[in-house]
Amino acid sequence: MIISTGKLLLGYGNVEAARGDMDKSFDLHQRCLLHHKSTLGNNHRRTGDGCVKVSDHHVRLLQYYTT
Length: 67
What we know:
The protein is mostly helical and about 70 residues long. It is built from three helices and no strands.
């Protein structure tokens, strides 16, 4: 079984969010999204997973336009 770097970044970002370190979580989720975009493209479901996580952070920060 091969686990992609992006999937690990997504999971690690979720762990940091659960621990309350939202800044680190946001950074990891952004890295995940960039990795998935560059390796899988914009139309892959894992890229969409990263988009959802990053947009959740933007909503938390009240950055609705960016979301």
